[in-house]
User: What shape does this take?
Amino acid sequence: MNRLLNLISLGLLTLLGFFLVAFGALYISVSDMLPFHAAAVPPGMREAVKPLYHALMALTGGSAAALGLLGLYVTWSAARLGKRGAATSVVACYSLAIGVAGWVAERLAAEAGAPTSSNIMVGLIAIGLAALGLRAVAARASVPGAV
Assistant: This one.
C-alpha cells in the first residue's frame, strides 16, 4: 500500500511538471496575444505593446518550462528515492509559481476586466498538496506501531 501511495504521489507531481512544461511551451510559441491577455489591453494599443508582450511571454514560458523540467528531475530522482524534503521542495516551488500566476490573473481581472483562470491555479496547487498528503500517509503507515 505504501508503494502504491508513493507512486500515485509521484504521478501527481509528474502531472504538475508536465503541465508547467506544456504551459511554458504554449507561452513561448504564441504568435498573437492570447484572448484573456488581449482583453486587458485597449484595442488601439495592442500593436504597440506586442514586442514587450512577446518578450514577457518568452520569459514566463521559459521559466515555467525550466521549473517543470527541474521539478520532474527532482521528482524522479530525490523524491522517488525518498530523500527528505525533496517532494516538499517541488510542491513549494510549483505552488509559489502557480500562486503568483493566479494572483496576477486576479489583479488583471480586477483592473482590466480580463477573464481569469485562478480557479485552475487553485486546483493545481491542490494536486501538489494531495501528492504531499499521500506521501505523508505512506510514511506514517510505514512506521512500526503507528495507527
In short: The helical segments are 2-29, 35-38, 46-79, 86-112, 118-141. The CA atoms of residues 2 and 141 lie 7 Å apart.
